């Protein structure tokens, strides 16, 4: 049984944000760090992967849809669809063979026992799919749908994908989204969560202007300056994100 687990989601290749979170005393003291996907697809993919790999077995890795897309681009998976995001092929082309092997080995879910929370299932989007959308205000029948097939002893589900932190109950299960470390929507800074014995949503501020300058100077991504300015400053609001994601959780405009 683990006493403390730090959950980092949606780092998206932003090294300054990751470094700020890893420097947090509660992250340093946590028995495990769980990464709930979308780790490297961003302006510093190799730097982020190398730092996380250096932490060894203390880290539990989960694949997100963006990690899968990096791998598909490099390995030309037959059923892979072209991505409209120019950052994905750029980041994919920078990965070394050991990075690709790591991404290929990542599971879609991870289950750990956490004090106070029991058996916790970690995933990227939902337990059954790495791109499904569920939100803090998703209707209960939607949650029942995405929980289909889960063992009864799983009473806590931790997910990422939508870059907005929340904690809610749905059909007796606690659902936790830590938000995004590198691409937050709604509020700047790095968002993460600490589990055990309860659930604690955390926010780590860091020097955004210095981070933007650093990314612009170091990353060879052609639009690094504009990308960093937009995402690190969270210029997409939570209202913008909910409006964009809402139709993808199956809701309609009718009661």
Protein model, in words:
The model has no long low-confidence stretch (mean pLDDT 94). Helix 8 packs antiparallel against helix 9 (224-232). The strands form 2 sheets. Strands 3-2-1-9-10 form a 5-stranded mixed β-sheet. A 5-stranded mixed β-sheet has the order 4-5-6-8-7, with helices on one face. Strand 9 (190-195) and strand 10 form a beta hairpin. The chain has helices at 15-22, 25-29, 45-53, 65-75, 87-92, 97-105, 140-146, 208-218, 224-232, 238-245, and strands at 5-8, 32-36, 59-62, 109-114, 118-123, 154-158, 166-170, 173-177, 190-195, 199-204. By secondary structure, the chain is α/β, with parallel strands linked by helices. The protein has 10 helices and 10 strands. The chain is globular, with a radius of gyration of 17 Å. The protein has one domain (5-249): Purple Acid Phosphatase, chain A, domain 2.
Key words describing this protein structure:
Purple Acid Phosphatase, chain A, domain 2; 10 helices; five-stranded mixed sheet; 10 strands; 255 residues; alpha/beta; globular
